[in-house]
Amino acid sequence: MEDLKNQVKSLQDAKSKVQHSIYAAIRNGEEIEDDVNTWLTKIREGEEEEVETRSSNIGACLNLKQRHQLSQEAKNIVGNIAELLKNGTFNKVSYRPALEVGMWATTRYMDYVNLQSRMSIAKGIMEALGDANINKIGVWGMAGVGKSTLMREIVRKVNKEKLFDEVAMVIVSESPDLRRIQGEIADTLGLKFDQETEKGRASQLQRRLSKDKKILVILDDIWKPLDLVEIGIIPSERCKIVLTSRNRDVLTCRMGTQKDFEIQTLLIEEAWDLFEKMAGESVKDPNVRGIATEIAKECAGLPIALVTVSNALKNKILGEWKDALRQLRRLVPRHVTEMLKRVYSPIELSYKKLESQQLKSLVLLCAQLSPFVFYRDLLKYCYGYGFFHDGIDTLEEARNMLDTLLGKLRDSCLILESFIHGFRMHDLVRDVATIIASEDHNMFVVIRDDGGLRTWPEVDSFKRCEAFSLLGGDINQLPNEMECPELRFFHLCLEDRSLQIPDTFFQGMDKLNVLDLTKTQLPSLPSSLLLLRNLQTLCLDQCMLGDISGIGKLKNLVILSLLRSDISKLPKEIASLVHLRLLDLSNCSKLEMILPNVISSLVKLEELYMGNSFVQWEDEGLNDERKNASLAELNHLSKLTSLDIQIPNVNNLSKDLMFEKLERYTICIGDVWDWIDSTGRTSRRLKLKFNPSFQLQSWVKLLWKRVEDLRLDKLNGVESVIPEMDREGLQQLKHLHIENNAELKYILNLRTPVIAFPTLEMFVLENMISLEEICHGKLRLTSFKNLRVLKVISCDKLKYVFSSSIARAFHYLKNWR
After folding, report:
1. Which terminus of the chain is more solvent-facing, meaning fewer CB atoms within 10 Å of its CB: N or C?
2. Can you name the residues that pair with 468 across neighbouring β-strands?
3. Contact by Cβ (8 Å): 575, 597
């Protein structure tokens, strides 16, 4: 029996070590390997057997035969434990769950992929994917013909037919960014890079792709040959690649594809079929129908033209259809390329048919930016540019209007849904919008990320230019100054971070409202920049910053973004920016000093983003002894509606934080949380390591009422979650994760039946050793009705999760363990 005790102690130590790794993995959003879970289950069964052996013989007077039987049972258990200890060494206990490749099964999408010509190509691609002798497939066709849409259909079919275990689809674009491509593939496969160099990441990705699982990687929109090995991709029977391009030569001759499929423009019958379905009821009018067929022909069989024009004319009257045909048949600008001529008039028509000048201006502004546009960046630009007119007083109102406008542009097919935090504008739409902007609106844009641009562009129209964007290129010298008296928007993002900006560069830009100098080295702010009295938005994202104390001279600044910059100390002069409404310090990981009373001086601040940034908050009670900001300073920001913040030391918490106006927040409290940029659609996130000193304070209750994503760790001193908080709370909760508690017996302790967690989609419980019931009391049948993911890990006293009557209402549950 003594040997049994020793072995049990060794097993408990091994179990504890593995569980520590498990808890850390789950906090990082990782899934636990099946063999680890199996091992833990066997341990629990062994522990029960050992306890039963002991308890059945406590206080008993045993004869020799019984003692021999007991000794034999103990030997058997010792042998089992030795086997468990032998199998308890794991190379890794977890893996990152894969992101789902998004699908948008809209009517527009289905109308296109169900065309006979597209179904035929999709069938051929699926057959090639099933051929063991083919691992590299090419799909080519001119811009706007629907290659990307067809690839999304291939992803849908592959997943439905389970042809591959995992699928990753990445848009490459004209200027390949290897780190982004590697990162997007890794995210989809649940791989977390621990290497910084592209070469190291490629090696790590290659190892992941060469494992046992069958993997499909789709690289969409390749403009020039791509070195797959540099990315970390080696095609094989178990790792197949599909490449799409506008140029067949790039695929067959340069990339070595083994099977190629051409996507051609639609024939007249299919083109009309697609157009008719999109255009609505008005095409049924005999007077309109003939004109509509002529308009469909003008779209030259290109789906992008057919979709944008049909949406622009949807349910319009006869006169508008006639005028549209006239516009489509007029001559396009002489300098438009041959490829662009086929879509210029249709896209221009869609632009002109937008219902307001504000929508048109938004299209032209988006064309000034990179192909992938982040919502938060666009809001910064629009607000500083004076894009929002009368009646829009706050950033919250501006964001809501921007959401509405972007929705209309999506409906018009002028922008594409691309990722959670942003969108993409199709290259052809951007090219047409750029021409319109330069010809009619004095906007000039050069987007060259391929290093081909080496000298500053000479543009005769600079003097009348209102907006100027230069993205990419290897320019090594800027002019001393630019004479741009009408310029209001200036966006510069070059590859050479060592490029120096002349001190006089911004002279002659007196009307400038928005200035973005992403990836620039600024030992100090140019003196000419500090004279820009009309500047509203200043973005110094990813910049190498030195002394920026002069920023206090920009008295009219409304938006300041230092996202991902290497700033270590926020200058006290920022306190002079009393009109500031948005301050973005996200991912400024070197920021360690914010002097007292700087934040509290920004009394008009509406949005403050400090995720993965400053955490050196000091106790407000120190007064004159403080060297850093205190959380109590946030109480001076009465207009604050958005807040991202990290508070590792709970002793720094203020008792009466005023958070009643927060519409969006990500707040991490306690020393257990690593900051992870959210990839979900929730806008109110709260992570708490509970402490009795603050868990019942009023500001926590305010956040609790509307939280959408809640994570709780170590709820010490409570037996259930809900009674300790507002019973009306958690009605909007979508994600709930509770872990590491030795005392909690119930999640809910109810005296009367309620509808609990009606919007909850993900529910995770782990390491709750005293948890006996999810709900002590009665639940109404529609409780947890939206639950999609359920995970219960190391909750040994929990006999069942839900009653059968409640579980029957789980219509959406697709992932549970």
Report:
1. C
2. 444, 490
3. yes
pLDDT, position 782: 78
Distance CA 414, CA 416 (A): 7
What's residue 598's pLDDT?
95
Local structure of residue 331 (DSSP, 8 states): P
- Give yes or no for residue 56 having a pLDDT over 60: no
Structure-token pair, residue 785 = 């009705």
Half-sphere exposure of 444 (CA within 13 A, CB side): 18
Residue 730 has pLDDT above 80, yes or no: no
**87: three-class secondary structure by DSSP:** helix
Place of tokens 């639940």: 779
Lowest pLDDT segment from 151-155, 187-191, 377-381, 446-450: 446-450
CA dihedral (633, 639, 643, 646) in degrees, to 10, reads: 10
Residue 31 pLDDT > 70: no
Distance CA 516, CA 565 (A): 13
Strand, helix or coil at 637? coil
Cβ neighbour number for residue 77 with a 10 Å cutoff: 19
pLDDT at 418: 63
- Helix or strand run (H / E) with residue 384: helix 375-384
Sign of CA dihedral 798, 803, 804, 806: negative
Residues 6+ apart with CB under 8 A from 52: none
CA distances from 790 to 766, 786, 787, 817 (A): 11, 11, 7, 7
- Please enumerate in sequence order all residues whose Cβ is within 8 A of that of 46, keeping only pairs 6 or more positions apart, or say none: 11, 77, 80, 81, 84
Using the predicted structure, report yes or no on whether residue 229 has a pLDDT greater than 80: yes
Both ends of the chain: CA-CA distance in Å?
A: 35
The answer to whether residues 748 and 775 touch, using CB atoms and an 8 Å cutoff, is yes
Decide if 726 contacts 702 (C-beta within 8 A).
Answer: no
Mean pLDDT calculated for residue range 176-201 = 86
